[in-house]
């Protein structure tokens, strides 16, 4: 890969993966939800620890009242299910559960982009910044481009070029063709939409 035009020096990541045609490449580079999982695990650990402390201390005859369970139990026993406060707490817990399910089900944006290869059992991962640098380098090779920049936003490539030419429309067509050719050569597993901006002489 390092011999390709415009590719950065950083080596891509190679991941053996069968079933590429069924979307295995995208699943292989799906980012993990480490932070939400850690927060949920710490919350459950804290609740479990408090429960264990209360149960053990009560069994030993030295109850530790870190949490006012008695007040909560009295409030729960004297409050109707259709009370506004009960409904508010239940709604908040339901919303929290739905948010956690959504976080687990919807993948975030990964730092690696899966690229197609000639081997159906091989997935190549390229960092998003490296892909942006490759597109920028390809745009800079077009005649008439004074300077080019590129950034990746999700599955959108934002490419901007500056030129001293007056005919920015024709240059834009050449740059778009060159960048799309580079995307076709790299062959991302997911379609990358291209947004091009051409800035002429001021």
From TrEMBL:
The chain crosses the membrane at residues 35-64, 84-106. It comes from the Bacteria. Pfam families: DUF6286. Residues 95-198 form the DUF6286 domain. Keywords: Membrane, Transmembrane, Transmembrane helix. InterPro entries: DUF6286. This is DUF6286 domain-containing protein.
């Amino acid at each position: 890969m390092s011999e390709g035009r415009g590719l950065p020096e950083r080596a891509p990541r190679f991941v053996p993966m069968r079933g590429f045609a069924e979307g295995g490449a995208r699943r292989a580079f799906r980012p993990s939800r480490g932070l939400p999982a850690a927060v949920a695990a710490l919350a459950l650990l804290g609740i479990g620890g408090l429960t264990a402390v209360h149960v053990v201390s009560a069994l030993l005859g030295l109850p530790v009242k870190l949490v006012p369970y008695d007040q909560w139990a009295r409030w729960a026993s004297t409050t109707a299910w259709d009370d506004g406060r009960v409904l508010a707490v239940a709604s908040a817990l339901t919303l929290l559960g739905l948010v956690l399910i959504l976080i687990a089900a919807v993948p975030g944006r990964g730092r690696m982009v899966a690229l197609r290869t000639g081997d159906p059992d091989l997935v190549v991962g390229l960092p998003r910044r490296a892909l942006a640098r490759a597109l920028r380098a390809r745009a800079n090779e077009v005649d008439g481009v004074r300077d080019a920049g590129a950034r990746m936003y999700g599955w959108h490539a934002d490419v901007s070029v500056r030129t001293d030419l007056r005919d920015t429309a024709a240059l834009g067509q050449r740059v778009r063709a060159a960048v799309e050719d580079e995307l076709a050569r790299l062959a991302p597993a997911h379609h990358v939409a291209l947004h091009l901006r051409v800035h002429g002489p001021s």
